[in-house]
Amino acid sequence: MRKSAVPPEVLKARRRQLGALIPGCALVLPAWPEQYRNADMHYNYRPESNLYYLTGYDEPECCLVFRPGKTPETVMFVREKNVERETWDGFRFGVDGAKQVFGYDAVYPYSQFTKVAPELLRGCERIYYSMFRNREFDVLFGEAVMGISGWRPRYGMGLPPIEDANSVVGELRMRKDETEIEMMRKAALISAEAHIEMMKATKPGITERYLHGVFLKEIMERGATTEAYGGIVATGNNATTLHYRFNESTLESGQVLLSDCGAEYQWYSGDITRCWPVNGRFSTAHKRVYEKVLQLQKELIGMVKPGLPHMDLQKRAVEGSVEILLDEKILTGTVEENIKAAAHAPFYPHGVSHLLGLDTHDSGVLMVQGKSRPLEAGWALTIEPGLYFPANNSKVPDELKGLGIRIEDDILVTPEGNENMTRAVPKDAGEVEALVGANYK
What is the pTM of this model? Predict the structure, then answer.
């Protein structure tokens, strides 16, 4: 029988934390529906992150009903054992297996949700459920809610209010526990080592897709579940498209290649961006800009510590980008004038940081009542400044046309400051140049 990747006691501790936030309420979290390419071709299944965070359960056709302080408290609905379907699709825990392995208080067949859930939800002050994320389950949830409507008017009560589950669970997910941190370190290391192998495999004449294949091979050999997101491998002017996806161009000498790829380990994401010269040597102009962006990135990482407002990172990233653009004589005037006019936007159009965890862009609210939240120990986030110089931009000098530079690391906020979880992959220009094409030197 399969085992849970997360110890049951860790899952129970997470639910206790959640229970303290929603006393007297209930939380309903369904799995994502299975995906199909057509009627009988399956995609690999990926569990819904909030559900996995609280239950450790990674099968489709399941749902958690959590009622803190009540008996039973943790109730799971799961698909039943089915020998014929297991022959086609693989192992299922089933009702008995789910209870035995995960220790839930009660487990029912998924098919009984609309019958059992109304009784579980009666008397709850409010229900936390994320509408419109799973349209198939919205229908089942609606039936369950209507199932409790008959008795409430007798007591002068309307239906319980429904609030977004993602916000309350996201608040917990922002602060990583030790189990999560270890998984994230592993995802980061796998991603870092795969990037090193991509650098070694680089030479003019191969394709972006070939290098993407190198990344996939290396992360899978190291135990990754899959990619954390669709990898970006972009050479030359392709790197000035932020979400470039084709990965089909041939690498040419004189170009700089940008790789934004990450491994997913036990559903936790790594997210790294590195840039390197296709022929193993940055041109003078390319190296000059690369080192300026790298210096800015190192400065931003140095800022990360508990208490720093998250928005301060973006403010400094914008200021630093404008300073580089002024130094390169692409912009004129003062830093303040250019920021006010958003003159940097064509060259630096994105944010410098996002939360990281079970999702690459992880759950959590970073602005509260219009104010930026201060960083806290246990948060994990990226730091990724960049500058992009499209070949068709007339303001860009010829020596920089078609250059895209972004440098990204995965940072854990610690009580003393921060830990760079992706430090294993080099980024200093000389170290990068020494690695490129090592398989062919």
Answer: 0.95
